[in-house]
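worker-3 :: picked Hydroxymethylglutaryl-CoA synthase
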Amino acid sequence: MAYGIDAMNVYAGVAHITVPDLFTGRGLDVSRLANLAMREKSVGLPVEDSVTNAVNAARPILDAMSPDERDSIELLVTATESGVDLSKTVASYVHRYLDLPRHCRVFETKQACYAATGAVQLATGYLASQASPGARALIIATDVALVDERAQYAEPATGHGAVAILLAEDPAVLAVDHGAFGCYSHEVLDSARPTPTFDIADVDKSLFTYLDGLAACYDDYCDRVAEVDFTTTFGHLAFHTPFAGLVRAAHRKLMRERTRTPADKIDADFDDRVAPSLLYPASTGNLCSGSVYLALASLLDHAEISAPTRVGLYSYGSGCSAEFFSGLVTARSVRRMAEFDIGGHLRERTRLDYHEYLAILRSSLTVLEPRADHDVDAEPYRHLFTHRRSPFLAYTGARHHHRRYRWY
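worker-3 :: tokens ->
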């Protein structure tokens, strides 16, 4: 019996700024746009945090389930580097506002942009163990962006949002290849979030660690799985996508070092097997631990998949922990993903100009700041989310450190 992703939905905010507009406003070198290969950056509102992003991503999945199916969700894990408290988890708030069963196991994971994959693998193993036959698991990768002009070229590449992943037996989206994975971890400070209002990053170190991690993970995968060929085993590839230029470099590195593909064929292979996975990331920016699953959603919505196809996935988290794993997708996967119309929701976001972006940024950068008592007024932003097809959960402030939320 197969286990893996049965449903998946992406929430990437209700507003965006075009990357060329942001480059112009910040006075950045436009010649670097080509390597970044991004069109739009998702922008978080002051009423959006890691809780609202998670709930707004998962709500459409749960709304499509029967009461019995919802009751079978026995595990909820949020993966985030945007925690709202050093003890109380984002998951506890998500559990409440999604009205999940009281018998649900609830907790949170943190390992930069890798955490969701660790949770997916552990949850898949739990379901496959049949410790609780018929159980489902809900993993939600959710983060907010805490970047401004100090981040320089990382600012246009950093997105905002969440990916909700429902795991089950006989999965409709991705059947995870049991036991087919490769891992690589070591301690490195390539990026960190030392306070709830500020990110730091060593960009060069992070890029090289990402590339080294991919090579090491793939080699470990090959040690575990017989007769793997990078060019033929995987019909498509979906990688953690800080920006498309890095994914192109990662693909080129493995093609040069692990295959005998002529140099003039590498770009064609990239266009065929990888490029469809980059269309959604180019419209949102890096969604942290949701990034590789955003790439998978993009792949399923844009590639030609009519027969069972193996997808190779690479997940990387600064700090660092990385994994290369695989799974099977089919035409059923394409149909299932189409139910959530992710592309349509991205197109419905409101475009902000540079000055509107700056005005929102001043308040949204403090959304994770712990405050005992304060209010956040949603009224100035209602025009951005009241047209949504799904209900919208907004952050409204705190009372005695208890964060408050409201449905619109």
